[in-house]
Amino acid sequence: MANKMRWRYGDTTPVVLSVDSATAIEIGDLVYLDTDDAKPASSQADQSTEAANQELFHDNFAGVALQASPAGSADPIRVATTGVFEFDCPSGTFEVGDLVGIDEAASGTELEDQQVDAVTGENLAVGRCAKRVPVAATSVLVDITSTVSHGGPQAAA
Q1: DSSP alpha helices (H): ranges in 32-141?
Q2: Which of 103, 71, 80, 79 is nearest to 90 (CA)?
Q3: What 3-state DSSP class applies to 91?
Q4: pLDDT band at 14 (very low <50, low <70, confident <90, very high)
């Protein structure tokens, strides 16, 4: 997916995170903290089930990339730890406050970098719906909260 500024409103409370030179991150990627480096969701090792992938991502959720880091660059990037972002999602409806987590790719072996979906448990979520979607749509506003920096909108597993 191409760089896409997904931030819509609210304080982003950014942090600066290191990125390994072999890792490519695009603006708008949901990123997690792997020891001391930011990585896009699709870099996370497969945990065999969608729920297990979502839970591990939730536990290490750093935020949303506000800067790109092309492969070969080791420059740190700014990552939003809070704020409201518009993400792609499978067609569906959402109510304000609904839990939202990272979406798994159709292959079932990796997570999407810039796509979310409704989740059933707080241990799977990276945020909550910020604007009602009463008619099925393919995007949703999500009020994200980094689990790493702020403990997330839910208790870490």
Answers
A1: 50-59
A2: 103
A3: strand
A4: very high
Residue 138 has, within 13 A of its CA and on its CB side, a CA count of: 1
**Is pLDDT of 120 > 70?**
yes
Tokens coding 25 = 């991150």
- Give the Cα-Cα-Cα angle 97, 103, 104 (nearest 5 degrees): 155
- Note the pTM of the prediction, 2 decimals: 0.94
pLDDT, tens digit (0-9, with 9 covering 90-100), for 50-69:
999 999 999 999 999 999 99
Query: ∠ CA(50), CA(85), CA(64), 5° rounding?
Result: 65
Counting beta carbons within 10 angstroms of the beta carbon of residue 139, is it exposed (0 to 12), middle (13 to 18) or buried (19 or more)? middle
Query: How many other CB atoms are found less than 10 A from the CB of residue 136?
Result: 10
What are the residue ranges spanned by the domains of the chain?
Answer: 7-150
Look at residue 123 and give its three-state secondary structure.
Answer: helix
Beta bridge partners, 12, equal none
